[in-house]
Amino acid sequence: MTMTVLPRHSSLVPVFVKSLTAILLVFLTAVAARPIHAQERPNIVFIFADDQCFDTIAALGNQEIETPNLDRLAKRGTVFSHAYNMGSWSGAVCVASRMMLNSGRFLWEAEACYQDAEQERQAGRWWGEHMKKAGYRTYMTGKWHCRANAEKSFDVVRDVRGGMPKQTPKGYNRPLIDESTGETVDPWSPSDPQFGGFWQGGTHWSEVVANHSEAFMNEASQIDQPFFMYLAFNAPHDPRQSPAEYVAKYPIENVKLPENFQPLYPYAEEMAAGRKLRDEKLAPFPRTPLSVKTHRQEYYAIITHMDAMIGRILDSLEQTGKQDNTWIFFSADHGLACGQHGLMGKQNLYDHSVRVPLIVIGPDVAAGEQISEPVYLQDIMPTSLELANINKPSHVQFNSLLPLLDGGESPYESIYGAYLDRQRSIRTGQHKLIVYPTAKVIRLYDIQSDPLEMRDLAKQSEHAATVRELFTKLVALQTELHDSLDLGDFDQYQ
């Protein structure tokens, strides 16, 4: 190799210096502009709630609820304000949500491999398996609800829970009013351990998740290996139980009735969310203000109790000394009506049931910011793979959130929703179209001016073109997502 040596006083020196300066400037600019995910294999903590609606966090605008630790996360990180679950092929919406999350596949692709979930895991096409292969120490506790073997999906597993805590008949069709006396009749108490539920086994299940999380953190603090934690609460799924002091935080007279409250939803039976559905049996028909306020009281109480356990998890992470190189993701598998639109469950396509909280905290992630670009909660899975320097596998259909955190746009032009063969929806930045094929009904909402989805515009002549256009887009989206349901001819709908 020939090297050119420049004399100290050569006329080429200024040129050389300028060139070197330019190179350094480009280098420094590139370093300064590095994407926020250019950290060397960070730790990842995934905190997952069950049935938590997007609007149940104080820092995000709910003035009724106390969530100091979720507020703490929202202030430390970036909130994706429009995160969604695609829906479900079964009444247990959480099964479909978690199958999509762990497989990385869209709704109908996830259903196709649902029966073979353990085979998916064994083939390495599974979230936990990807993280193991990347060199992560993996931990899991809490609700699973996937057919794959949880004990083999992670390196360390404690207290795997089923879909929901133990129920009791006394927890349904309540509370009632004694017509002869006008007094409230309610045989069930949210804070009495005798009913089992979240106290089955002696310790509240949310506390069990916190206990194991602290133990995991303690172990992880002693090793150099990066860690991935999957911490899944059953809360705030019913039966919504929490210690009495948490219920006392929400006196029934202070609980507000949802603005979009209805005694009955007109198409509940046709959309398969009627009187026979377990979730809908929790409150009496027709819904009463008292019953809805009571269920919302218990909903808020168990969320606040879970929030306290999340505080313990965050504190234990700080104590590991590894917080600065740890990404935290908080979300829920889907939302819950809990009295909105005359519905109690999540088997519908209104925002209260398909939209979830999603908070991201990590090195250089903007603090206290919100991103309104539409995403799916399952995008967390490929985001973690990118952070772990794993090339996105071909079977993973969801997308990383990192480009959006870097200022990019959503890869989703519109948000898709489905429930069984009874409901379909498409949501754009301006509108949501909901289709009930059995009832031959279409509903249209302007979600910009009507975020609570209270004013159906579908039958107004000035919106006829919008309805037809969105219906056409929905059918095209069905084809793209391998949705086999034939919605039929548009003109059949009322």
- Number of domain modules: 2
What's the number of helices? 14
Q: Uncertain spans, ≥5 residues at pLDDT below 50?
A: 1-39
Strand percentage lies at 15-25%
Cα radius of gyration in angstroms:
25 Å
Describe the global form.
Answer: globular
Helix content: 25-40%
Structural class: alpha/beta
Q: Could you please say which CATH topology of the largest domain applies here? A: Alkaline Phosphatase, subunit A
Give the CATH H-level superfamily of the largest domain.
Alkaline Phosphatase, subunit A
How far do the termini sit from each other?
Answer: 81 Å
CATH architecture of the largest domain, please? 3-Layer(aba) Sandwich
Query: What is the β-strand count?
Result: 18
Oligomeric category: single chain
- Mean pLDDT, as a whole number? 92
Name the strands of the widest sheet in spatial order. 6-5-9-1-10-12-2-13
Largest sheet: 8 strands, mixed
Structural notes for this entry:
- The chain has 494 residues and is α/β, with parallel strands linked by helices.
- It folds into 2 domains: 43-412, Alkaline Phosphatase, subunit A, CATH 3.40.720; 421-492, Arylsulfatase, C-terminal domain (2-Layer Sandwich), CATH 3.30.1120.
- 30% of the residues lie in helices and 16% in strands.
- The chain contains 14 helices and 18 strands.
- The chain has helices at residues 12-32, 68-76, 93-103, 107-112, 117-122, 127-133, 150-153, 205-220, 244-247, 289-320, 351-354, 380-387, 402-405, 464-480; strands at residues 43-49, 78-80, 83-84, 87-88, 137-143, 156-161, 176-177, 184-185, 227-232, 326-332, 355-356, 358-361, 369-371, 375-376, 415-419, 423-427, 431-436, 441-446.
- Strands 6-5-9-1-10-12-2-13 form an 8-stranded mixed β-sheet, with helices on both faces. It has a 5-stranded mixed β-sheet with strand order 4-15-16-17-18.
- Strand 7 (176-177) and strand 8 (184-185) form a beta hairpin.
- The longest helix has 32 residues, at 289-320.
- The radius of gyration is 25 Å and the shape is globular.
- The chain starts with 11 loop residues before the first helix and ends in a 14-residue tail after the last helix.
